[in-house]
């Protein structure tokens, strides 16, 4: 098994959960994601992108890392190119760190879609900001390790059939959820969270380290 940690350009905070996920992972940075490598005190094995977003204050130790350079006018994002590089190097699972937030909502949506596609192709994929996580939900039953009180939502990317949520403050039992419904937003973990789905496409969004409101 080979897990790759892909550093993307969105928001990322250092948490104990993030550090535990990083242990034993190989690391690839996508363009501006190299700033997260500095914050985490790690040296990726590869740096991928068109390098139009390189931090000005990047330490010299991080400038000599192996690079894959692409033109600015390309048909894939730096993140997708970094994921492709990880798969070429034998990745069997992925953590997309910095997949949320930032100034590009379109990139965040792409990362959710990519994670779902990768999971359907047999590559388990987690999205994280350190404080917030996203996990694709495939037909079948998935169990999660979140603590009691953790806020979570299920984002349906299609109509959902036979959705069951146990170990939740507001459980659901074999329900049909229309596309665009808010029924599955803002629940809380209560026990061991298990989510079963008969058909449809969805992503679990959880907040294991909620940040203080400003």
Automatic annotation (TrEMBL):
Tell whether Kinase is among the UniProt keywords.
yes
GO BP annotations listed: thiamine diphosphate biosynthetic process; thiamine metabolic process
Does the record carry ATP-binding as a key word? yes
Task: List the SUPFAM superfamilies.
Answer: Thiamin pyrophosphokinase, catalytic domain, Thiamin pyrophosphokinase, substrate-binding domain
Q: Which UniProt keywords apply?
A: ATP-binding, Kinase, Nucleotide-binding, Transferase
EC numbers listed for it are 2.7.6.2
Which InterPro entries does the protein's record reference?
Thi_PPkinase, Thiamin_PyroPKinase_B1-bd, TPK, TPK_B1-bd_sf, TPK_catalytic, TPK_catalytic_sf
Q: Per its UniProt entry, what is the enzyme's top EC class, as one word?
A: transferase
Q: Which GO terms describe its molecular function?
A: ATP binding; kinase activity; thiamine binding; thiamine diphosphokinase activity
- CDD domains in the record: TPK
Write the protein's name.
Thiamine diphosphokinase
Q: Which organism is it from?
A: Borborobacter arsenicus
